[in-house]
Amino acid sequence: MIAAITSEFRKFFSTRLWWVLTLCMVGYFLLMSGGMAATVGGLSSMSPGDSSLEGFESVVYGIGVASGYVFPVIVGAIGVTAEYRHHTIVPTFLAQPRRLVVMGAKAIAALPMGLAIGVAGTAACLIGGGLGFAITGVPTGLDQASTWRNAGLSVLAFTVWTLVGVGLGLLIISQVGVIVFALAFTQLVEPILRLGMSMMSSPVLNQLAQYLPGAASDSLAGGTSLYQMITVSATTVSGVPPLGVWQGGLVLLGYAVVLGVIGYLVRIRRDVA
Fold first, then answer.
1. Residue pair 69/256 in contact by the 8 Å Cβ criterion
2. Among 23, 97, 171, 212, which is 20 to 30 Å from 266 by CA?
3. In angstroms, rounded to a whole number, what is the distance separating the alpha carbons of residues 70 and 52?
4. Nearest to 58, CA basis, from 159, 151, 157
5. What does R_g of the chain's alpha carbons equal in angstroms?
6. How far, in whole angstroms, is CA 218 from its chain's centroid?
7. pLDDT tens column, 116-148
8. Residue of 73, 72, 76 lying closest to 11 (CA atoms)
9. What pTM did the predictor assign?
């Protein structure tokens, strides 16, 4: 098993896609967090004493995990799909015929990659947001323990998202297909579905909205996103309590496990030649 994990970890570095995605993610988070922080700081200076702008530091620093979790998903997925794209999956299974070992090794090898991506993405949000607040003369909030607590939870959320990507890659072995699906679902389908379900006057739909993967991720990261604020506001009116940190983590991890199990059952006996 150790040899399989080592082999799978090395495979992440055999292509350029992982570091290209990481660089794109860092640049995107720097721009997004810096721009949002500067906007909030500008509005705060125009409307001093406006309490509606208080607490937005956590939203700015959490923008990465709220809107950019597609990056760790794709990185986790390509750990699987790259083998099918480059036709190396056959020698992999010849070297290790037990497919469960191979799939498990891919998931374990993805953990340090997800951790590194989470650290890089969270740091980019802290740096971009901190600079934006500092330039506009607004307190950065970087001296608060809650900021660093949420930062640590964001790193954890990114790591779990990488496992979700591995499960998704097992289910959709086409590299182009999994990237298109991940982009469409995370950036379009789920946000619309989540906001729509949260705004409806139905406690059942309000509750279900919190179990969508993005909502669970926000809960795991401390509930600091704009989506989460809207969801919590709507569900509080209907009397539905929001998910806690550990509950969100379990739900998101559940998605990774379910996708991984289904993907494994689909691939266990299917011919890969």
1. no
2. 212
3. 30
4. 151
5. 20
6. 9
7. 999 999 999 999 999 998 888 888 888 889 889
8. 76
9. 0.89
